[in-house]
């Protein structure tokens, strides 16, 4: 349940980044194939354990909806539980569902993720996220209802996977890449004004050479940067993302934190805490 | 639960189109704002009522996930119920969620929609869909795990909304539009061979001038054509989509059928039945 507030998502994020001195977002990807055997039946417990471990050093968690949805209605109940637990632990929640649809359907997604839906029996609360990821392929009228919901929206601009090159890197007749056009759309939707916009951008940390250009095109957008660690991105390459200030980018890591004990050994929670703290320090030192 | 079968989705679809003599897909969009007041609290009952009304004249239903998700875990349970009801009524189910993500996340979406997920307590069945819609912005490696699941996959190529022009119609340096490049990707992913491919394409019926070109680029893909009726598409303009045969395209309508009583008056179920029958005849007469 969203706490009533007059602050925008970007304002809340900036305040939390300052309070936590952290720009780290920990991915919650309860993939049964990567979970400890004893927790495979209980993704809520697995995720809440990660929340406990990383809460001091992270500013947000990013649960991946697909792994919850794969468990049906019980998975959705687990998502609600994890979301509420993370918020009580002082973390923002960015629901990673990469939704994209039009008109009333887009509004229903926003209600499902972070709002509520009116029914004759009273309002049904959504999942309780503070922000979510969105896919811009359907254009402006698919993003506007998400933005109008008042939640933070992170629009896919240039993702971290190899296949991103198949579509997002296509060269347009104008000479720019498709992802640069998507970046312009994000900037337009974020509106004019000072400070950070509520419309952010997902940019893979695996291609840091794009970050300077992305920052030129989207001076006010918060960048969500997945791909550090397991996917090969290095935090020290991300400085251009932080040019407008410390809350202007969020560094996302999943396996690098949750699976830290596999490399260094020891207790998983202690290893995750140490990995989150190292990443927090590395990112914090990039901007002032 | 998917019935075990060695037939591909395209084979099953072709057989059902022949048996039903129908290429009509009825959208199940339980948008509270458009539902009769007395059913607003019970989307499963609303959707099952539509299934009853249209089953004789439709080959499939296309439930829109967002409206179910907006009701939380109860909405997901309702989705499962509607899916199972529609299949017992002899209809295929195309889950409209427009998912798009990578690797293990894409696999989890396929499990959630039409497969099952292993847990220590046994496999958890997915929603039970026969096919689903997918968003190709993340490229080939986001679509391959969906296709590998064995379900039918309808990839967004050129959607029916005005905002589609913002991104899908962008001209590439090669001279073609982005949607034409997406069409080539769909054709490649469908593989070589005779007959219809399991990888289909979503193409808005609102822009019939694209259908001939789309058919050239995707000779084996089943086209899913939304936008007839309320969005302005006319069934008589869709003939090029059916060039390879009667099962090569599916005409989707939602409000034109479910809300038929608003225009012509009378009992909603009888009006929906009559509207579905008219649409079925109009589409069937387009190809031989």
Written description of the protein model:
2 copies of one chain form a homodimer. Chain A has one domain (9-283): Aldolase class I (TIM Barrel, Alpha-Beta Barrel). Chain A has 12 helices and 10 strands. Chain A has helices at residues 9-20, 43-54, 65-69, 72-88, 103-114, 140-148, 164-167, 178-190, 211-217, 255-258, 260-264, 268-284; strands at 24-28, 60-63, 92-99, 116-117, 124-125, 131-134, 152-158, 199-203, 223-225, 249-253. In chain A, strands 1-2-3-6-7-8-9-10 form an 8-stranded parallel barrel, surrounded by 7 helices. In chain A, helix 2 (43-54) crosses helix 12 (268-284). Chain A is globular, with a radius of gyration of 18 Å. Chains A and B meet through helix 3, helix 4, helix 5, strand 5 and helix 6 of A and helix 3, helix 4, helix 5, strand 5 and helix 6 of B.
List the helices and strands and how they pair.
The structure is a homodimer of 288-residue chains.
Chain A: H1 9-20, E1 24-28, H2 43-54, E2 60-63, H3 65-69, H4 72-88, E3 92-99, H5 103-114, E4 116-117, E5 124-125, E6 131-134, H6 140-148, E7 152-158, H7 164-167, H8 178-190, E8 199-203, H9 211-217, E9 223-225, E10 249-253, H10 255-258, H11 260-264, H12 268-284
Parallel strand pairs in A: 1-2, 1-10, 2-3, 3-6, 6-7, 7-8, 8-9, 9-10
Antiparallel strand pairs in A: 4-5
């Amino acid at each position: 349940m969203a706490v009533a507030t007059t602050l925008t998502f970007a304002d809340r994020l900036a305040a939390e980044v300052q309070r936590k001195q952290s720009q780290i977002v920990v991915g919650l990807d309860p993939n049964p194939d990567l979970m400890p055997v004893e927790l495979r039946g209980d993704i809520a417990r697995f995720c809440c354990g990660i929340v406990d471990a990383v809460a001091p050093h992270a500013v947000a968690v990013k649960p991946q909806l697909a792994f919850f949805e794969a468990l049906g209605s019980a998975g959705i109940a687990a998502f609600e539980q994890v979301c509420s637990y993370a918020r009580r632990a002082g973390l923002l929640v960015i629901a990673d569902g990469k939704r994209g649809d039009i008109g009333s359907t887009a509004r229903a997604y926003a209600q499902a993720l972070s709002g509520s839906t009116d029914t004759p029996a009273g309002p049904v609360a959504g999942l309780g996220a503070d922000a979510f990821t969105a896919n811009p392929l359907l254009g402006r009228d698919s993003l506007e209802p998400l933005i109008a919901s008042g939640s933070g929206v992170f629009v896919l601009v240039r993702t971290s996977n190899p296949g991103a090159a198949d579509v997002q890197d296509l060269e347009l007749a104008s000479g720019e890449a498709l992802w640069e056009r998507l970046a312009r759309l994000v900037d337009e939707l974020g509106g004019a004004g000072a400070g950070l916009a509520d419309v952010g951008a997902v940019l893979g940390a695996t291609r840091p050479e794009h970050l300077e250009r992305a920052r030129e095109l989207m001076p006010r957008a918060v960048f969500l940067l997945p791909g550090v660690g397991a996917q090969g991105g290095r935090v020290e390459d991300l400085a251009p993302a932080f040019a407008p200030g410390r809350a202007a980018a969020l560094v996302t890591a999943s396996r690098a934190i949750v699976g830290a004990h596999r490399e260094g050994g020891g207790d998983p929670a202690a290893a995750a805490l140490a990995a989150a703290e190292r990443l927090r320090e590395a990112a914090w030192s990039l901007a002032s």
